[in-house]
């Protein structure tokens, strides 16, 4: 069974950067599509970015365009979310998830989440 572990969250000032990692265990990651999702307090979970097993990228929200990028390192069995120019509204718990299909398919495996707080 695939197990996903996120890391890299923390407290950062507005305008700062963080890089989140999603490491896969018990299974190779390169057959999966990986999505990053986030849930802010009192809000529903929303998709952020997704990278398919073939490397195509989908953005689920316009608000991260030009600021966030997603990449995968199959040799390290890890997917990254690089977040630049962070804003207070980016504050949320960030989750990575894996799908057997493309970015629009159901996500079968989820990590435990990592907290990102953007505040001065």
What composes the largest sheet?
7 strands, mixed
What's the mean pLDDT score?
Answer: 95
- Total of DSSP H or I helical runs spanning 4+ residues: 0
Termini separation: 40 Å
Unreliable runs, pLDDT <50, ≥5 residues? none
Whole-angstrom Rg: 13 Å
Strand residue content: over 45%
Shape: globular
Total beta-strand segments: 11
The helix fraction, in percent, is under 10%
- Category from helices, strands and their pairing: mainly beta
Q: What pattern of helices and strands is seen along the backbone?
A: EEEEEEEEEEE
Walkthrough of the structure:
- It contains no helices and eleven strands.
- 0% of the residues lie in helices and 49% in strands.
- The chain is globular and about 40 Å long.
- The strands form two sheets. Strands 2, 4, 5, 6, 9, 10 and 11 form a seven-stranded mixed sheet that branches. It has a four-stranded antiparallel sheet with strand order 1-3-8-7, with no helix packed on it.
- It is mainly β and 120 residues long.
- The protein has strands at 3-7, 10-12, 18-25, 33-39, 46-51, 57-59, 68-73, 78-83, 92-99, 109-110, 114-118.
Features:
mainly beta; seven-stranded mixed sheet; four-stranded antiparallel sheet; 120 residues
């Amino acid at each position: 069974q695939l197990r996903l572990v996120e890391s890299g969250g923390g407290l950062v000032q507005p305008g700062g950067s963080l890089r989140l990692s999603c490491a896969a265990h018990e299974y190779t990651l390169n057959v999966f599509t990986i999505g990053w999702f986030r849930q802010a307090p009192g809000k529903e979970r929303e998709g952020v970015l997704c990278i398919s097993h073939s490397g195509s990228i989908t953005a689920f929200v316009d608000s991260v365009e030009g600021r966030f990028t997603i990449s995968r390192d199959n040799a390290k069995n890890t997917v990254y979310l690089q977040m630049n120019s962070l804003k207070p509204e980016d504050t949320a718990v960030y989750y990575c998830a894996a799908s057997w299909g493309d970015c629009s398919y159901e996500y079968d495996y989820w990590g435990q989440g990592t907290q990102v707080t953007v505040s001065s």
